[in-house]
Design goal:
Blueprint lengths: L4 H15 L3 E4 L5 E4 L10 H9 L3 E3 L13 E8 L2 E9 L2 H44 L9 H12 L6 E8 L1 H11 L3 H17 L8 E5 L2 E8 L5 H15 L9 E7 L5 H13 L7 E3 L3 H14 L3 H11 L7 H12 L4 H8 L3 H15 L7 H14 L1
Parallel strand pairs: 9-10
Antiparallel strand pairs: 1-2, 1-5, 3-4, 4-5, 6-8, 6-9, 7-8
């Protein structure tokens, strides 16, 4: 590590305001890079150079000053970071008077350097996570410019993401948690940072997340790219998701909805898992606060919605337009058909749910068949077609 002059100046100003003594910071060559005596900036100091070279404290008494070019009386101590001497600090004054002050200055300097390093490391990793999440949330890799792919590869490598593992994207709605803290402390960037750190610590401590997993708080949602050694089944995903919800929520009254996408080993499919997790999250309810894309009803509806958005949208749109002149789109018929399909095409169950006689339901379905040709009672294809048309209308 090299001490930057900007950081060195901040350290000198901070310490001098506390101790009211002139302090110098030197690089490994013994050059003053920050000082309370501006005229000495950039000059050589033999006492500091000796402290760096020997790793020892160099005390310079008034009668010894001529032996140390560029020096004044005082004490000079090596600055150590990660086991290496990276420079030195010096305090002006008689050594017998500033000896303990020098030790304090050295300790403060090393602590500030360590803190600064941790902050830079944290900021760098946060920036990498943000860049990676941008790809996960918004980009299909095949649409990236050619030069962006190596950048993504380096980002994945720097994050330590093992692409040989199975990964799934999950999204947890934590806005209620944020609102609770904001009510007491006011909403700020620092509060959001604290909440993210608190959530991730809880998840790491409970081993629901590992250091190799990637998680970030974005717009009131905790987005997680979770790694699994083996492909989890739906039950395992539900168990993990439920433990995640229980770990983060602060009491039983806090409902945290969670959506979980598909599992994949392909980096280019992460964005699909995110899209599916988002779909699941939007369809969570108070009764079902956790949904995965592998839940049968969710998967069918998602597949139908995706199909209605693709090339099939054209013929489906044509059919929908032809059905506009029938009662297919009426509120009563839509409710009848949806209830019939959601009841597993069971006449008795659907009639009970609708609160009508089974003959009334059969009459409505017969009318629908006569007007549209859709025979829901006997054709599973017509039933699926109805579901597609309803999704198309959305």
């Amino acid at each position: 590590m090299i001490i930057s002059e900007e950081l060195a100046r901040e350290i000198v100003n901070t310490i001098m305001n506390l101790l009211h003594r002139n302090v110098n910071i030197f690089n490994r060559e013994g050059i003053i890079i920050a000082t309370g005596h501006p005229h000495r900036y950039g000059t050589f100091h033999k006492g500091a150079k000796d402290a760096v070279d020997t790793g020892k404290v160099i005390e310079i008494y008034p009668d010894q000053v001529p032996q140390y070019p560029g020096a004044l009386q005082g004490i000079n101590l090596p600055v150590v970071f990660d086991g290496q001497i990276i420079g030195a600090v010096g305090v002006f004054g008689h050594p017998d008077e500033v000896r303990y002050i020098g030790k304090l200055v050295k300790a403060i300097t090393e602590l500030i350097l360590q803190y600064d390093s941790l902050q830079k490391e944290s900021t760098s990793k946060h920036a990498l996570k943000a860049k990676f999440m941008d790809y996960v949330m918004a980009t299909e890799l095949k649409d990236l410019p050619h030069q962006a792919t190596p950048v993504l590869d380096r980002t994945v490598q720097d994050l330590g993401l093992n692409t040989d593992c199975f990964h799934t994207v999950s999204i947890l709605a934590v806005q209620s948690l944020i609102d609770r803290y904001a009510a007491g402390y006011g909403l700020s960037y620092l509060l959001l940072e604290h909440i993210e750190e608190m959530i991730l610590k809880k998840c790491l401590d409970s081993q629901l997340l590992l250091d190799s997993d990637i998680a970030q708080l974005i717009d009131g949602r905790l987005i997680i790219v979770k790694a699994f050694d083996q492909a989890p089944d739906n039950e395992q995903l539900h168990q993990w998701g439920e433990k995640l919800r229980c770990c983060i929520r602060e009491d039983q009254t806090m409902q945290l909805a969670c959506g979980i996408g598909s599992t994949t080993r392909k980096l280019e499919e992460y964005h699909l898992s995110y899209k599916q997790a988002l779909y699941c999250l939007k369809h969570c309810t108070a009764q079902q606060p956790l949904q995965t894309i592998y839940d049968h009803e969710v998967l069918v509806n998602y597949a139908l919605e995706e199909a209605s958005r693709g090339a099939a949208r054209i013929p489906l749109g044509d059919l929908r337009d032809r059905l506009k002149e029938t009662n297919f789109g009426s509120a009563e018929m839509v409710n009848t058909v949806n209830c019939f399909l959601n009841s597993g095409m069971n006449i008795k169950a659907a009639a009970a749910t609708l609160g009508i006689h089974r003959n009334t339901l059969l009459y409505r379905l017969n009318c629908l068949q006569e007007e549209t040709g859709l025979d829901l009672s006997h054709s599973v294809y017509d039933a699926v077609l109805c579901k597609l048309l309803f999704h198309l209308k959305k």
